[in-house]
Every structure is written in structure tokens, then in C-alpha cells.
């Protein structure tokens, strides 16, 4: 990556509130024309980071650069970035058009240009007919689009989105995801999107930064994050997983030989594991196949079955009392074992991920 | 539903409420009715007439009461404007500046006029104005009124401001508004209902005051309440009832206005 | 977070923080210079020597307090004896204010409860009806009450006409008239805070209590009272404090026998007595009582919120 391609460069950013540290030296780069997601549980620092980019939080130390230019000390109104707020923050006393024109008029656009551009962005979010309404007269979904239009109208260098979908209901949320993604392609600017919803992150992002406790745990494309989590937190936070305590006997040529609970041997990519020792094996529930007892890598007893529609979730228990879940696709040919029956579990070698202790 | 467990319907509470309203309204209604009495004897009913209203504007005491009414209005409007401006600035600091040194003390100071008994404020003001040799008619009344109107203007304004999240100002600044523009274009318009009801409240409170005015007023200066009090001391005359009824109507109009403004403000808030 | 949370930290508060002194200054100056300083000066005056035509001579003395509390005087040869006249007036004021407060509570609580349990749409209309009289000039309201209850007033005329009484009730110029006047003046102050606390009460709690075998009275005592208590206490203070120093109700509705603090003080400055230091001393004592009540209230409030 050359610096010209980097839209936002965050270097060693620390944010302290009194004795509490919200960001422990975060460094990451967001490319031009990239849909970049900050993902993590509440309190992980993702919103603080976004607000630091917008200028709403003064960072305690570190540097934030926008297209190579240091903006760390600039107040929010001097930063060419715009935010879509979680509660939209549409000005209730202004019409939709006035809301959309607000940013342009403050940044030196002429009235006619601003009005023209406002029409254009409102068309873009399919709200052309609502220009004269007040925010209170719009539905939640429409308000969300106005917020988007308002933030995009002044042509910001980067668009920041602070959990903008969390106030919408499920159906609408799914529809807006697709639109948001295509809007990002259309405008060709970087979107930095904050969410705690991993499904949202996985479906929309070019890259995801998983955050926890004020630190970036892993940055990568959605498949990397999902299939090759670098640590227990990421494995556990993204999707469902089974974490098994394993003993690694040796590592050679990037492959690790280990023994599973119950004593069966197993070989899989070593990943971050450098040598023998205790480790954790992360196996996704859908990457486990059922087989006859004794024929697989693990033996278990079925303790419960949950019908999920597309899938059937099987709760099983290993000999050492460890609980695991297995997902079976719901089809006519699927044979679902009875509760209490003994089964064997076969792990997909490529999908099992070894994590250091 | 079993009415035994429904505490919302205590029997007899409606009766008490009605008693409460009767006690509150009976004197006012009686005076309003008797102000239309044609008889010169104020207790005997002599038919309906507007004679006493005519008397208020043209009778022998008309110039005195008119001057008093003008004084009252001038003081109430000026005091309410001044108190509203002071209270608006204070509530911006109290609700927007986060924690700052002397915040608790500032709040105590703003509420002080509410805590000090009226008669004590009256004595203190009289003593103070006399000591600094400041006894010129309307000005002393005006200053005293501004002081005790500040908390009354402050309460609705700061309540309104507390209900406006600073998110809107953040959004404005995110959209390139300078702090000054964010205040002028976003916060101030959103505060307007609160500012208006604060102004109306201060206005009514100023108009209402008798005790403090009576202490600090210069010789020969009267406001409506002090003029009415002086007149009532000689006995209740019918023209007082007509004036009272007029003032009652003015008060009701102002309170209704204030209530309506407050309600539209709330509706807006609830919808967004 | 919903509306109501205003300071999420960050820029907005930073911008105003630097200006907080400038924004607060007019309020500080006005109240500090024209209320706080005058109250201080009033306290100083209470220790000065009186001048007979009103005003003071700048000479320190405890004469005002001496006159207030002692008959034979603190500095005479004889042992001092307590002067009961003024203490009696204070005591009567406390008594009258107390009776008015209890009357307000007895009528105000059911009223507030009734209003708070209406549907939200009708609630504000009831509330509006309760508050309107408060906004009508206090003097006019008191005069109206005087007109209504005096011996030749409409109330007695009506009662005589119906034959319910054979002679006028003689309400005016009695303690009862003053209590009625105070009650009438400050009733909305009782209703509003109680209303606010009852409105916050979640009535499903009492249903839960009933479900758990609690009788209606146990529920009232154990579940509802703790919730509405702050409203009741606030209401009592809002009625008691202004009643204590009230001037109009005792002056217009009461007679010589119902003299209260407000009239005593007024007489020193506006009336015939013309003893400024004594009036300042009486005011200082009144202020001390009120501040003590408010301090006790504030301390209990803090205790309550810490729990």
C-alpha cells in the first residue's frame, strides 16, 4: 500500500478517561474506497475510535492522518469527514432539505449548488419526494436515509457510520445493508462502519477490525476473520465455535500433531502455535460431521436437539463432560440421532484452527 | 379486574379532587360574578352591569390604577426579559459545560431567591438599597424583580435544555458548523419553547409580586398589587373586583399560552 | 441512550466549559450583589442601634435580639426573664403554617393521586386546572377569599338564605381564616410534587404485591409510600416555608390576634413601629429557621440518593 491509497491512518492512538483507558495504542490503516468495519462488543473502544476520527474525542496520544495530513488536533468542524449517528441526530426544527444542505452551506457551497446537490443525494437514497418534510414526519428507515444523505452531501473524504442500523427492525436492516454497500461502491469513498453485529460486519465489509478491551485483535477480510481467527476472543466472538483444550505434541512443516480430549490424535495447520504445549482447537459447529461411535476424532453423547429451521443444532457432551455443539443441515437425508445416543464426531482438518493458550 | 387490588381507584379521591377545585376556584368565580353587580352595595345583588368596568377606566381612581398598571407592565416585561437572558446563559453553562468549578455553588445561588422567604428578601433589599442610597422609584423595584425572576425563568429553560441531547450540536459540528453556528442554528432554535415559557413564567411572577415591591418602592410609586392593597385596606370596593377580574383573565391567558408552548415543545421531542 | 442524557463528554462540553464563567457571570452578579449581599447587610443591621424615624445608627448592639427574647433585658441588674410576645408570634406562625401544611397534605395527596392515575391525555388537563389559580395574583386571590368568607360576604349570605345558619359564621379575622388563606395560597405546591412522584410509580408493582398476598393497606405502606415519600416531603416543605413568612393571608384574613411573623417584620419597616434593627433581627431569625428546615431536608435527600 502506498500512502496515496490510504484514506485514514491511525497510529498508536491512546485514549484515557481519568484512570480508565478506552484505547490502548490502536494502529490501523483504512484504504480509499474501502468498506471498513470496526467490530466488537460494547465497551471495546470501537465507538471511541470512530469519535476520535470525527474529532468528538481528543486522543490522549497518537496520530490520526487523513490522506496523509495530520488531523489529530483539528476540531470536528474542520475535518472533512462526516458521521451518520446511531440516533441519526436529524435537526428536528429543519426540513429534510435544510438538514441535507446544512453541511454544504457551512462549508462554503453556494445556495444553488447546495440545493442541487441536496436533490441529487436525496434521489440517491430514494427520498426525492420528502424534501419538504420535517424529520418527525418520517419513518425510522426514512430518517436513516436522510442521515445518510446529509452526511454524504458535502462529499466527505471518509464517511463514518456509528451503528446506523441498530435502530431499524430486522427486515429493514437486511435491506439497508445491501443498499449501504452499493452506495459505498457508487460514491467511491471509504466507509468506516462501527457495529457489534458480526453478521452485519461479515456481509458488508471489505475488511474488519475486531476490537476488544481497547485493542485491535485482528484485521482481515471477512473469510480470514471467520476461518482463521488469531485468538480465542476472535474465534469466540465471530460466529459460534467449539473451543477444545488440546495437548500439542509437536509442530513441523506448519502442521501440528496433537491429542484431542478423549485421546485421539489429530493433525492440523499449526497457525500461531510454535511448539509443543497446551493449546485450544477452534472448530465451527457446521464443520463437524457425525459418524459411528469410535469412527471419528471424538466420542460424545447427544444431550439435546434444537430445531432452527435451516439447521438442526445438536448439543453433545464429551467423556470429560465438555459440551459441544454440532450443526446439521436440515434436509430430508439428514439423520438426526436420538437424545442420549452415542455418536462419533469427525472434525474437518482444514477448518479446525489451532490457537495458542 | 379485581378492583380490590387496583390502587388507581380509591373511592372518594374524585370527591376530594372536586372539593380541592371548588376551594381553589370558588373565591375567584364569586369575585368575577360580583364584578358585574349593578348595585353599589357590594354584597347585595342588583342585576348585571358593566358599570364597574367603566369605572375602572373612567372613574375617579382610574388615573391611579392606570399608572399602576403601566408601571406593573413595564417592570414585568423588563424584568422578565432580563431574567430570561440571564437564565438562558446560566442554563447553557449548567447543562452544556459538563463539570466546572463552582457548579454546585452556582446552582445554589440560582435557587437562592426561591429559598429565602419573601419577607426576608424584601427586608434585605430595602436595607441594602437604603444603605447604598439608592431609592429611586421604579429602578429598585426592577432590580429586585429581576433577581427573584431568575430562578423561575431558569427552571423551564434548563429543563428544556436537559431534554435536548448534545448530539444535535455534535452533528452540526460534524457538518462544518463552528461552535458559534452550532449554538445559533441548532441549540437556540431547539431551546426556544423553553425560553418562551421561562419568559412567561418570569413575567407572571413579576406581575404577582406584592411584598418585595411594597418594601423597595420609592415614595409615590405604585404597581397594581400595591395600589390594590392600599385600596383594599380601606375596604373592598366593586372597582377592585373589576380590576381583579381583568387581571385574572390576563393571568389565565398567559398561563394557557405558556402551557400550549410547553406542550408543542414536548410533542416535537417525543416524535423525534 | 435516550433523550435526557445530555453530556456524552467530548467536544460540546469542552466548548462551553471554557466559557462557563462568562455564561454564569450575569446570574452570579445579579443574585450575589442584589440578594446575597443584601441578606448579609440585613444581618449586620440586626446588630445595630435603632434610629427612631426608621433606619439605623452605626453602633454595635445586641438590643434587637435582647428585645426579641428577653423581658427585663440581658444587661440589667435583675436576672433576665424570657419575653414571650415575639416568641409567641413565631410559635403561632409555625403552628399556622403547620396546620395549613397538614390541610394541604390531606386534600392535596388524594387529588394528586387521583390526577396521576388518570389516562395521560386527561391528566394534563386536570393538572392545568389545579395550577391555574396559582398563577392568578396572590393578592387578588387573598382579597377574593376575604370577600367570600367575610360576615356580609356571599358565603354567609348564602348560608343565611338557606337557613343552614341563623347568624354569620364569623370566619373572618380568625386563626381558621388565616389557615384557610394559607391553604388556598399554597395548595398547588403540595399537589405538584406528589403528582410527580405518583406518576413515576409503576402500578404493576402493586399488582405484583397483591399477587404476593399483600393487602391493599400493606401495599400502600410497604410499596407505595416509599416511592411517593419524596414527593410528600417536598410538598410539605414547599407549603410550610412560604406559609411561615406569609404576609398577605394573615394581614388580610386575620386580625390582631392572628399576628404572624410577616406582619411583625412589615410593621417594623412600613408600619408604625419603625424599628429597623428589630425587624432585621426578626428576619434573620426567620431566615435561620427556614435554612435549618431546608438543610435538614437536603441532608435527608442526599442520604436517600446514596442508598
TrEMBL record, chain A:
SUPFAM superfamilies listed in its UniProt record: MOP-like, P-loop containing nucleoside triphosphate hydrolases
One Pfam family from the record: TOBE_2
UniProt key word Secreted: no
Reactions catalysed according to its record: ATP + H2O + polyamine-[polyamine-binding protein]Side 1 = ADP + phosphate + polyamineSide 2 + [polyamine-binding protein]Side 1
PROSITE patterns tied to this protein: ABC_TRANSPORTER_1, ABC_TRANSPORTER_2
Alphabetically ordered keywords of this record: ATP-binding, Cell membrane, Membrane, Nucleotide-binding, Translocase, Transport
Annotated InterPro entries: AAA+_ATPase (IPR003593), ABC_SmlMolc_Importer (IPR050093), ABC_transporter-like_ATP-bd (IPR003439), ABC_transporter-like_CS (IPR017871), Mo/tungstate-bd_C_term_dom (IPR008995), NA-bd_OB-fold (IPR012340), P-loop_NTPase (IPR027417), PotA-like (IPR005893)
An example molecular function term from Gene Ontology annotations: ATP binding
Listed Gene3D superfamilies: 2.40.50.100, Nucleic acid-binding proteins, P-loop containing nucleotide triphosphate hydrolases
Gene Ontology CC: one annotated term: ATP-binding cassette (ABC) transporter complex
Similarity section: Belongs to the ABC transporter superfamily. Spermidine/putrescine importer (TC 3.A.1.11.1) family.
Subunit structure: The complex is composed of two ATP-binding proteins (PotA), two transmembrane proteins (PotB and PotC) and a solute-binding protein (PotD).
Free-text function comment from the UniProt entry: Part of the ABC transporter complex PotABCD involved in spermidine/putrescine import. Responsible for energy coupling to the transport system.
Protein name, entry field: Spermidine/putrescine import ATP-binding protein PotA
Lineage: Bacteria, Pseudomonadati, Pseudomonadota, Alphaproteobacteria, Rhodospirillales
Gene designation per UniProt: potA
TrEMBL record, chain B:
GO BP term, pick one: transmembrane transport
Location of this chain's protein in the cell: Cell inner membrane; Cell membrane
Organism: Hwanghaeella grinnelliae
Topology within the bilayer: Multi-pass membrane protein
Function: Required for the activity of the bacterial periplasmic transport system of putrescine and spermidine.
Family, as annotated: Belongs to the binding-protein-dependent transport system permease family. CysTW subfamily.
The entry's keywords: Cell inner membrane, Cell membrane, Membrane, Transmembrane, Transmembrane helix, Transport
Taxonomic lineage of the native organism: Bacteria, Pseudomonadati, Pseudomonadota, Alphaproteobacteria, Rhodospirillales
UniProt keyword Transmembrane, yes or no: yes
InterPro entries: Bact_Polyamine_Transport, MetI-like, MetI-like_sf
Protein name: Spermidine/putrescine transport system permease protein PotC
GO cellular component, one term: plasma membrane
Pfam families, sorted: BPD_transp_1
From TrEMBL, chain C:
Transmembrane feature ranges: 27-48, 94-115, 127-149, 176-198, 219-241, 276-298
Full protein name: ABC transporter permease
Localisation per UniProt entry: Cell membrane
Source organism of this protein record: Hwanghaeella grinnelliae
GO annotation, biological process: transmembrane transport
PROSITE patterns (alphabetical): ABC_TM1
UniProt membrane topology term: Multi-pass membrane protein
Coiled coil: none
